[in-house]
Amino acid sequence: MAITLYELAGADPDRRFSPFCWRIRLALEHKGLPFEGRPWRFTEKDAIAFARSDKVPVLVDGDRTVADSSAIAAYLEAAYPDRPSLFGGGAGEALTRFTVGWTDLVLHGALVPLILLDVHRHLDEPDRRYFRESREARFGTSLEAVCPDPDAQLASFRRALSPVRATLRGQPFLGGAAPLYADFVVMGAFLWARGVSPLGLLPDDDPVAGWRARMLERLSDEARRLTAG
Amino acid sequence: MAITLYELAGADPDRRFSPFCWRIRLALEHKGLPFEGRPWRFTEKDAIAFARSDKVPVLVDGDRTVADSSAIAAYLEAAYPDRPSLFGGGAGEALTRFTVGWTDLVLHGALVPLILLDVHRHLDEPDRRYFRESREARFGTSLEAVCPDPDAQLASFRRALSPVRATLRGQPFLGGAAPLYADFVVMGAFLWARGVSPLGLLPDDDPVAGWRARMLERLSDEARRLTAG
């Protein structure tokens, strides 16, 4: 049964950067499930209308279609219980939701201002217009004005990572001795930045940088090809 | 085998408010383990020197002595595997550490300025001197100057709870359908405040307030007696 993952792409179809799509790519690799990652752009709403969603990731697995990264992760765990687990059991699945909420609301919130213009720069022309209009409406200001003090914003991003840092002082991954979906969720933010921005988000001696390096080492060649560097 | 838990107390020995001690009291109740909670004060270092710790909680279980809330929780899980689990398995135990790190660094950080003077007010005389000296050294200012704008600080505390709020919109407890240690860790912060402060930390319609009410309902009469009405 063929699996297809619709993933956000830039003008270059091999530049994939959505943090939510990365969560699922990493989850599929973790479960060892072969799949095709199909590039999709913000303005190609028609191409995913069949999934009753206007956003990616969208996963098609045979005759099943699932939208939304959290719903897709839950689907994969239920549909492929004999493959390596994303959550390590029901309690792990429930506990992971806090890390997801924190990443969505706190970590992404601290990262977005730093990379918003970089994302814009990587989009194709129709997506650039869409992105500028929708994001300027969301932030109530021009893309260029969202981050008036990048140094302070970078310091704030690094401070926001304090609970990840504290956890990684005691264990190599958020999931413990090996990564779980919680790791993929936080790593999604770093792959989002890596796909578009030259910014050095972390000093080398940060335990979070060590974890990021361990996560990068585990990427498949295919995944590595779809991010920068 | 008798279990004793040394817990921080105010001038009134029945006023227990340490968030770290509450984590363990809730964990012991969760596991259904009978224990004696022994009041201890900041300046009674000699009374816990046998545990090679100068802080509570300290747990004595027969001939075993364990200090530090995280170490105690891990000990209880390993020593009483047939009792209700605190983590729901190894992955859950690893994933819980992120919630612990977040609570220690972010939630407590946002709460402390709001209740520092209330804590001071509830201590006995020797502890008041100790608390003022140690906390003024830590904050680099007088206790009275730590929170110049309580309204802004309260707003900041409520904003900090956004990942808890997001999680509780989808499930009744951080641990899922029933509470786990992650719930006890976050609840420790609310019981800390409840033990000393009249401040209304949450509006009634906040999903976090609903969760806090569910957690309070589950407290034993003994635990309820040791916090404020």
TrEMBL record, chains A, B:
Annotated Pfam families: GST_C_7, GST_N_2
CDD domains on file: GST_C_etherase_LigE (cd03202), GST_N_etherase_LigE (cd03038)
GST N-terminal domain ranges (all copies): 8-84
Superkingdom of the organism of origin: Bacteria
Transmembrane region(s): none
Protein name: Beta-etherase
